[in-house]
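ASSEMBLY PREDICTION REQUEST
Request ID: AP-0331
Submitted by: J.K., bench scientist
Number of chains: two
Total residues: 594
Priority: normal
Notes: Please return the full assembly, not individual chains.
Input sequences:
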Amino acid sequence: MRIRSHSPLLILAMSCGVFLAAFAASLAFGARSIPVATLWQALTAFDPGDPLHGVLRGLRLQRALSGAICGAALAGAGVIMQGLTRNPLADPGLMGVNAGAALAVVAVLWSFGPQDVPAIALAAIIGAGLSAAAVWALAGGQEASDNRALTIRLPLAGTAISSLCLSMVAAVVLLNTETRDLYRFWMVGSLGQATFDTLTRLLPVFAAGVALALAAARGLDALALGHDVAAGLGARPARAAAAALLAVTLLSGGSVALAGPLGFVGLIIPHLVRGLTGSATGLTLVAALPLGAAMVLACDTLGRVAARPSEIAIGLVLAVIGGPAFMVLLSRVLRPAT
Amino acid sequence: MSVVIENLSVSLAGQPVLQNLSLALPTGKVTGLIGPNGCGKTTLLRTIAGLQPMQHGAVNWQDQPVSALSATERARQIAILPQSAQAPDSMTVADLIARGRTPYLRAFRPMTQHDRQAVRTAIARVGLSDLADRAVASLSGGQRQRAWIAMVLAQDTPLVLLDEPTTFLDLHHQIDILELVTDLARSHGKTVIAVLHDLNLASRFCDHLVALRAGEVITAGPPAEVVTQDTMLRVFDLPCQILPDPRYATPVVLPA
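STATUS: Completed
Returned structure:
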């Protein structure tokens, strides 16, 4: 396989361009379309009297920002996860965050009945964190001097913890109809409920996640060559792996708290971006952030336009588009290199 | 003597691998570590590189204990190429070699002009400039090994450790790699320590040999003094005859 290297600036410019287009589309299209000129006016010269401006500055902007942040976070988490496990099809969900968040949300809904969005978000992020910590401990993360052992045990531990959480979720949901209806709504993933308030509170989580991911990038580059080579290059394998997993947990935990479990973004975007950027984790990460955001925004817009004036939950759109895309990628990865 | 090892003992999973080993290796020369499988050659190499914790003793590099160096300082002094290292499928030759600059990079900053120059020089040095954009996985075994050696060159360290750099290569490529390795010492003044299996090639290309068995040094010195009937019997349990190479006068082992 011959690999063409593109200029990093070109790649970044392209991904930011795609993101801006998707962001504009997300603001413009919906239950009712808003002309681009009005869009620009609403953002630059806000008129409180204009109902279209209100829709834009209130609901649409809120929604677009949430979608962008979730998409960027999931794509970033995917880059780090695939780099760490040296598995080009690893998913950030391998840390068990989605299942952990689901269990916490169900536990809260079951115990206390319907909750407002910030409370659900808080439960989700605590559940995500606890479950990631359990996966880390079960995989023997703290004493894993050999990264290869960790890359094998981590997916197994993640699968075990996820199954455990999801079976407990199933038990509660089967026994309790009221919880099931509340849970079902959260489970499909939706950007419609995210508010500026939740967004602002979760912002430090995302910021810390991105910072840690960037800091871990160079260590992961060295680790891709194996534990001994990495150590010989002066990287600290154990520390890099710990930082990487913490970054994955913060990014995907923040995202699941904001919009529920969204699949495929963290799987597909890193994979596509690596085709352009090659093996440098730092550049792949920086290019994946805007493209992940663009994918979520595009799918969300599609879900709103396709079912006007109602909408299809983003989780479902992602699954319908992401599932086949994943199968195509899988068949390409499995095909031997020529 | 740049690498000085004193009373070194190392255990792996509770089993002693190296016992009370003392050794001094010459600066700017190629030293070959020879011995049967499992005698502790790789463990010795990893310990010199500071990758293997030791139970007892000291490894000094230029009068300083290796364990006192920070990970980055160490990586600017000592480069190690482990046995059959593997690059990710999609990684290009240039990307792999650029990883050698890791100990010089500053956090969140791209490579400097100087780093890029070092990478280019290393690629040219091993004759892979034309293949720089190819995937490492698509190279032949010999080219791949040259790429890894170029990564070590880009690391620009005075001490270079190589674990079986010629394994899985045909004879032609073995000689090719060993010529490259000896040139590191002869032309660039680097100190090279390599684990080698082929005794005849080791005798021809190394300035100094260390024969190990069961974690102990049996003998060390110039090839002519180490590769003898008596030592081969003690190290490998191998009865053999030793002839001088007709061209290089180095010892050639003929198993009986």
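REVIEWER COMMENTS: The longest strand of chain B covers residues 15-25.
SIGN-OFF: pending second reviewer
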